[in-house]
């Protein structure tokens, strides 16, 4: 069979249903109990071979519906998708240079792991393009080398991440949960949010999982899930962006079952009772004037998939 001329992979964003953050470790990372949940907001990453480039070398292009977000995606070697192609090229025999095109829908620097999603998608796409047949376990290891959040979008659905978030165990979930994500202008640096967390919580305890959250997911109970959502980084994100407090309050006042900052923020996530309720909640949030825009999505959804 001939090698493919291009491969496109669709990859979901994540929201953290529980982000329990422990003390800073010797390597500068924080021990986490990080419950990832993949939602139906997708980037698409397309790779095609470039014979004028060295194996694993990439040129990038990006487009998407939000020009302000597209403009913030780096087009050089620091792009996580380019770093993923370079890393995989060192582990498969028939790597080529590649053009990587990212169609962006996941907010940039928004706490929804868009860069990590693109890196996971690039690993899957390049492995298919180069016919690497890299085993799943090896792809997960390579993903973890690229960042704490890169392994999760390979598996998607709902999973708890321990260590620095990269050691994943799937969690059973019944049914579908409906979400509204409120986008705000500008991003937040993950490093700065963790630094602010250290300042606010010098005495952080070891992170734990929450039985009530696990039970709510297994039962498909949105009301109980809403009550169990927590994010230890939220006070740090609110300290850096105080206006997010008004956004969370607007969502609660409009009847969200749960409201929290997504990961390191500043995107905020609101749990709804149904798809209809999510649309109503989104309209109320937009009318409140506390966010730039909203996106509705459902979860859990599968991880990076060749389309
Ligand atoms: C906070 C979370 C929650 O899922 O994601 P975002 O909300 O930003 O997407 C993650 O922990 C982010 O994961 P990721 O963005 O891959 O982080 P990395 O590249 O590994 O690390 C970036 C920086 O974040 C801090 N960091 C990250 C992970 C961790 N367990 N402890 C940390 O202290 C460190 O300062 C590190 O230098
Ligand atoms: N493919 C990519 N898409 C988006 N941002 C990227 C990408 N590669 C590198 N970055 C950089 O990573 C930073 C964090 O972006 P992102 O992964 O979208 O957010 P977060 O870490 O909040 O989930 C961005 O500010 C950008 O400079």
Automatic annotation (TrEMBL):
Keywords of this entry: ATP-binding, Isoprene biosynthesis, Kinase, Nucleotide-binding, Transferase
Reactions performed catalytically: 4-CDP-2-C-methyl-D-erythritol + ATP = 4-CDP-2-C-methyl-D-erythritol 2-phosphate + ADP + H(+)
GO terms, biological process: isopentenyl diphosphate biosynthetic process, methylerythritol 4-phosphate pathway; terpenoid biosynthetic process
InterPro entries for the chain: GHMP_kinase_C_dom, GHMP_kinase_C_sf, GHMP_kinase_N_dom, IspE, Ribosomal_Su5_D2-typ_SF, Ribsml_uS5_D2-typ_fold_subgr
Stretches assigned to the GHMP kinase N-terminal domain: 79-152
Listed Pfam families: GHMP_kinases_C, GHMP_kinases_N
Pathway: Isoprenoid biosynthesis; isopentenyl diphosphate biosynthesis via DXP pathway; isopentenyl diphosphate from 1-deoxy-D-xylulose 5-phosphate: step 3/6
UniProt binding sites for ATP: 107-117
Residue ranges annotated for the GHMP kinase C-terminal domain, each copy included: 214-289
NCBIfam families: ispE, PRK03188.1
Family statement: Belongs to the GHMP kinase family. IspE subfamily.
Role, per record: Catalyzes the phosphorylation of the position 2 hydroxy group of 4-diphosphocytidyl-2C-methyl-D-erythritol.
Protein name from the UniProt record: 4-diphosphocytidyl-2-C-methyl-D-erythritol kinase
Gene source species: Thermobifida fusca TM51
């Amino acid at each position: 069979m001939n090698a493919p001329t291009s491969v496109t992979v669709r990859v979901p964003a994540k929201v953290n249903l529980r982000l329990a953050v422990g003390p800073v470790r010797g390597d500068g990372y924080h021990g986490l109990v990080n419950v990832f949940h993949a939602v139906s907001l997708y980037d698409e990453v397309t790779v095609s071979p470039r014979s004028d480039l060295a194996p694993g070398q990439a040129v990038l292009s990006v487009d998407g519906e939000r020009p302000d977000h597209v403009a913030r995606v780096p087009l050089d070697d620091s792009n996580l998708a380019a770093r993923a192609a370079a890393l995989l090229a060192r582990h498969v025999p028939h790597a080529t240079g590649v053009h990587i095109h990212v169609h962006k829908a996941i907010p940039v620097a928004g706490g929804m792991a868009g860069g990590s999603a693109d890196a996971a998608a690039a690993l899957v796409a390049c492995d298919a393009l180069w016919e690497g047949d890299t085993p799943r376990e090896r792809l997960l290891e390579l993903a973890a080398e690229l960042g704490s959040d890169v392994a999760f979008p390979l598996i998607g659905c709902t999973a708890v991440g321990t260590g620095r978030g990269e050691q994943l165990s799937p969690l059973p979930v019944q049914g579908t949960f409906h979400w509204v994500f409120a986008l705000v202008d500008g991003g937040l640096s993950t490093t700065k949010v963790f630094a602010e967390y250290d300042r606010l919580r010098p005495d952080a305890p070891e992170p734990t999982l929450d039985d009530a959250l696990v039970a709510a997911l297994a039962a498909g109970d949105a009301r109980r899930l809403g009550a169990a959502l927590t994010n230890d980084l939220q006070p740090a994100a609110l300290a850096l962006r105080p206006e997010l407090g008004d956004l969370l309050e607007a969502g609660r006042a409009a009847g969200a079952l749960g409201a929290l900052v997504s990961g390191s923020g500043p995107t905020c996530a609101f749990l709804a009772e149904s798809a209809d309720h999510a649309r109503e909640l989104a309209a109320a949030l937009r009318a409140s004037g506390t966010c730039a825009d909203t996106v509705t999505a459902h979860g859990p959804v599968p991880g990076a998939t060749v389309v």
